[in-house]
């Protein structure tokens, strides 16, 4: 599972479960809990976590075991899954049940991690960002004390995501750094790659392009040490986004194109639109329009933020028009894009969007939606088009 070979992992798990049939029920419970753990660590698939923890609790019910370490772990796993991609009220109920069970017997470090991480995810999705940081700290430190750096990275990244949503980018960097201290050299490459991807994103939002470039290159070096082409594609995506921010359009077009070759934990429609922007920068306008058409054909999930795709695409249409010298059309398209982002900024629940990306992409996707950033960029582009229109009329 940690190598990204999910199909092989599931096949081995199925073989193991066949060997457990008819044996000790508690062994069956523990196997389902291990399966759930893989799907909120090595993989990130909340529906599998929920299904696995339910199977574990069904066996515990048959055993008449209403409490115990396995019951508590199953409740915490189910609370995490509901908090990320299910029913937030149900997540609260499960966490409340855990509070009752642990009122007289404090949880050990591993269970503390599971509980606090679940709480943090639910709070993020509810948009209560200021309450997330303490939960991230409690969950991350508990995982480290338990000797599980593979679990520690998730809470620190979730805390960083909440900080980004709240507009506190320096805090986001601090939390990512804390996560890197936990995992560097102590776990598989995957958690460090995700943390460095998060750092790349935050540095780009801060405009610190050369530092972001350094992080993205480290991502690729780490990914090269794994057999997973999807991790290399994620690194190429991030390198491409850095190149785009630096206006290195040839490199951006090449790297973003490479990222689209294999299945990877990236938003394909957003990546295509970024590549289209790079192609506009190169003057390859027909190729850019080809990427716009391809974007419309990409399957879209909630993690791709469908509501944001129209203003993103409309902006690129404006850039194409500007490159052709049609500044009137460019101005209209850019204003349409800005109006779309203003509308979304007033109604968008950023925390829900971040959890949707986590559930659909299978990794924390920090900063995937930043309406304020998009509007600032569009306002600059609109001002430039207004100047060009004035010159043309004169």
Residues in β-strands, percent: under 5%
Radius of gyration: 23 Å
Report helical residue fraction: over 70%
Secondary structure category: mainly alpha
Number of strands: 0
Total number of helical segments?
Answer: 19
State the end-to-end CA separation.
64 Å
**Main sheet characteristics:** none
Q: Could you name the ranges where pLDDT drops below 50 across 5 or more consecutive residues?
A: none
Average per-residue pLDDT, rounded, comes to 90
Order of helices and strands: HHHHHHHHHHHHHHHHHHH
Which of globular, elongated, flat, extended, rod-shaped describes the shape? elongated
How would you explain this protein's 3D organization?
The chain has helices at residues 6-20, 25-38, 46-63, 69-85, 88-101, 109-125, 132-145, 149-165, 169-183, 189-205, 209-224, 229-245, 249-259, 268-281, 285-297, 306-323, 327-347, 350-361, 371-393. It is mainly α and 394 residues long. The radius of gyration is 23 Å and the shape is elongated. The termini are far apart.
Strand and helix map with partners:
Layout (H helix, E strand, L loop, with lengths): L5 H15 L4 H14 L7 H18 L5 H17 L2 H14 L7 H17 L6 H14 L3 H17 L3 H15 L5 H17 L3 H16 L4 H17 L3 H11 L8 H14 L3 H13 L8 H18 L3 H21 L2 H12 L9 H23 L1
Helix pairs in contact: 2-3, 2-4, 3-4, 4-5, 4-6, 5-6, 6-7, 6-8, 6-18, 7-8, 8-9, 8-10, 9-10, 10-11, 10-12, 11-12, 12-13, 12-14, 13-14, 14-15, 14-16, 15-16, 16-17, 17-19
């Amino acid at each position: 599972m940690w190598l990204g070979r999910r199909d092989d992992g599931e096949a081995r798990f199925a073989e193991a479960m066949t060997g457990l049939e008819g044996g000790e029920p508690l062994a069956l419970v523990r196997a389902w809990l291990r399966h759930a753990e893989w799907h909120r660590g090595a993989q990130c698939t909340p529906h599998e976590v929920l299904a696995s923890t339910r199977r574990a609790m069904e066996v515990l019910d048959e055993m008449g075991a209403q409490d115990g370490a396995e019951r508590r772990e199953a409740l915490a796993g189910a609370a995490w899954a509901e908090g990320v991609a299910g029913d937030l009220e149900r997540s609260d109920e499960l966490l409340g049940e855990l509070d009752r069970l642990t009122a007289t017997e404090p949880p050990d470090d591993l269970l503390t991690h599971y509980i606090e991480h679940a709480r943090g995810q639910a709070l993020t999705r509810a948009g209560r960002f200021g309450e997330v940081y303490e939960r991230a700290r409690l969950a991350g430190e508990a995982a480290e004390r338990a000797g599980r750096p593979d679990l520690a990275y998730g809470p620190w990244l979730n805390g960083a995501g909440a900080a980004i949503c709240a507009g506190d980018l320096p805090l986001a960097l601090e939390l990512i750094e804390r996560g890197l201290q936990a995992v560097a050299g102590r776990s598989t490459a995957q958690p460090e790659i995700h943390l460095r991807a998060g750092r790349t994103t935050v540095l780009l939002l801060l405009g610190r392009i050369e530092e972001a470039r350094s992080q993205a290159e480290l991502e690729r070096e780490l990914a090269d040490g794994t057999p997973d082409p999807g991790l290399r594609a994620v690194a190429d995506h991030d390198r491409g986004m850095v190149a785009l921010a630096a206006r290195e359009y040839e490199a951006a077009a090449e790297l973003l194109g490479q990222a689209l070759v294999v299945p990877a934990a990236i938003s394909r429609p957003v990546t295509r639109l970024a590549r289209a922007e790079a192609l506009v920068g190169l003057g390859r306008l027909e190729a850019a329009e080809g990427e716009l058409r391809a974007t419309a054909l990409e399957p879209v999930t909630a993690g791709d933020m469908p509501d944001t795709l129209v203003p993103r695409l409309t902006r690129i249409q404006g850039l194409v028009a500007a490159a052709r010298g049609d500044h009137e059309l460019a101005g209209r398209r850019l204003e349409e894009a800005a109006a779309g982002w203003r509308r979304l900024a007033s109604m968008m629940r950023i925390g829900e969007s971040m959890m949707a990306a986590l559930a659909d992409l299978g990794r924390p996707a920090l900063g995937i939606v930043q309406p304020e950033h998009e509007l600032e960029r569009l306002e600059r582009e609109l001002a430039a088009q207004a100047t060009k229109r004035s010159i043309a009329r004169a």
